[in-house]
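Work Package 3 (structural annotation) set out to generate three-dimensional models for the target panel prioritized at the project kickoff. During this period the team completed the workflow that converts sequence records into discrete structure tokens, so that structures can be stored uniformly alongside our sequence database. As a representative example, we reproduce one entry of 358 residues exactly as it appears in the project archive.
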Amino acid sequence: MVKGKVGIITFHDSRNYGAVLQAYALQQKVSEEFRDVEIINYQNPEIAKVVKLWNYSGGGIKGLIKTFLAFMFRLRKKIAFDGFARRFLNLSSTVFDDTIADFSDRYAAVITGSDQVWNTVLTAGDIHYFLDFCNDKQFRIAYAASFGDSKIELSEDVKREISKFDHITLREEDMVNDVSECIGSTPEVCCDPALLLDAARWHSNCSKRLCYEKYVFLFMIDESDGIKKYAKRLADEKGLKLISNKNDFSFILRPSPSDFLSWIYNAEYVVTDSFHGTVFSILFHKRFISYIRNKEGLPKKRIIGLLEKVGLSHRNTDNCDLKVDEAEAWDSVDEKVENMRMTSWNVMRDTFKDLEMS
């Protein structure tokens, strides 16, 4: 185990299930290699807007009631996520845009990633995720950094910061050539951190079973009519309860990341348009169906790519011939996931060998 303090900057505080769970997974894996690891508790202003508790936009009494109900759910979700963070994440003190430079001497190495930390549309161009606050002595690493589903034009500031990295891996293929031009070599593509932990480790973080009826779990990012109709039809055909993350009271009452894992683990079927919903469905060997289009009807490349890599491309709602109860060759799927896991982390281990810390 290497000495020296390591910081991780990622989307740990967006109250998004995939974001906080991938942050936890990366922290766990890095902790296997380093004695002292913490997540930099950086507060991005754009993300702060998204998780704002009270967001009234007019509409009279009806609008006020709707806003109040949304506030109550957001507050409950905040409490649940804060509890998970206290229990499972090793966070630094809170850091803002005007204080993050104070962290320049705190770490021997800083890792950015994974998730869409390099999606400058999400962060309003925040280049702290490109480690602009690091000094020349710090080792800069990007693990499976993602620009998201859309190709992004790199600004000169971003290109300059990328060129300073000691090692970069990306999560998707789309931006490999653009990053190659900045660093003079081809970055490898590594898996999302959630895939670095196996099903048994994730199961140990699950809440107890939350619904004793058999159910279909519908987990949505975009509330499209297509995915809602599909899930309702499936639940009706199978005679099962439908639980949705958007409007089901039982989900609203149990919204923690550990609850999210339990909702997937104990479901008879999972219907999702979420990348991480798909990840955990695969890890838990669920009968799942992924909705592979966003609200504009464009393909969700991250989900499509993952399904291709593990041999489950047929498990999507575009497949008219999908037999939802078809038995999968899970041994083969697990082997592919394990290969992704080992290959990705071996790349990081090779990177860590370059570190000389005292």
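The chain has two domains: 2-196+339-352, 199-327.
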